[in-house]
Amino acid sequence: MNKNIKSTNIDLTPAISEYLDNRLSAFDKFIKEDGASVCQVEVGKTSKRHKSGDFFRAEVNLTISGVNFYAVSEKDDLYAAIDEVKDEILYQITSQKDKNQTLMRKGALMVKNTIRGWNDWRKK
Q: Among 1.20.1250.20, 1.10.3660.10, 3.30.160.100, 1.10.10.10, what is the CATH number of 2-98?
């Protein structure tokens, strides 16, 4: 997986970079080894003037086999924003996976019922 990390209005320290790598490793079990996965991450402050409030921002844009997943979070703590974005992306990935499995099962059931109907018709 190709990772592009961008920081806005903050310095990307080794601690933040390591924390991001640790959290983004949760996506690895959903990614195939075909090399077509891209993860773009942007972390930073929304502005330099604010002293209080939700001004840390984390944004993740993940592409896995042509399917895009996107999440944004603004929190008063950068690490909390990163955790929330990770959880949202994981939710989207598992939701998409469940939808695909449901569609495959419906299709397989339709084929099975069609074959049953065809066999019943042939017996008559």
A: 3.30.160.100
